[in-house]
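I'd like us to work through together how a protein chain folds, taking it slowly. To get us started, please write out a protein record for me. Go ahead whenever you are ready, and we will take it from there:
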Amino acid sequence: MSKVYVAKLGKAVGLQGHLRLFIDSDFPEQFKKGAVFTTNRNLEIKVLDYNKERELVRFENYLDVEVAKKLTNSELFTTQEATKEFCKLKENEFFWFDLISCEIFENDLLLGKVKDIHRYPLNDYLEIETSRELISKELPKVFLIPHIFDKFIEKVDIENKRIFVKNAFDILENS
């Protein structure tokens, strides 16, 4: 069962165990009452309440400032299964963990495989590990494709772990 990083806890706020919540996920709705997360210290904690406007969260059994302080700087993780259950995707939205290791095809040419995803202010980028065949033709070992539908991404087939692209070979050649 693979863990998915979703947030970091900041300092305690007030006397009742509220902590600042820094969400690193596109799905703030997953922080609802009763949701369970694992910390980077392998503690399992359950959300008691989450205030979206103030970006504050409180956990069961951490109801005063002294106890809550122990969670400061903890990273929160969920599972891929929980993510799929609680986070609803719109059209052409995908979970990062589903995109990782997909093969990238332009026409019938295998360009490589998704190695990672980078988040930049304007767009997310797929980091592609170039196929051996293209590396042997002196092309870069790694390149980035903007995750923009219609311009670069044509179709994503999660079941078969394939992403069909256009204009990406030009990016590879010029990387």
Q: What stands out?
A: The two ends are 35 Å apart (CA to CA).
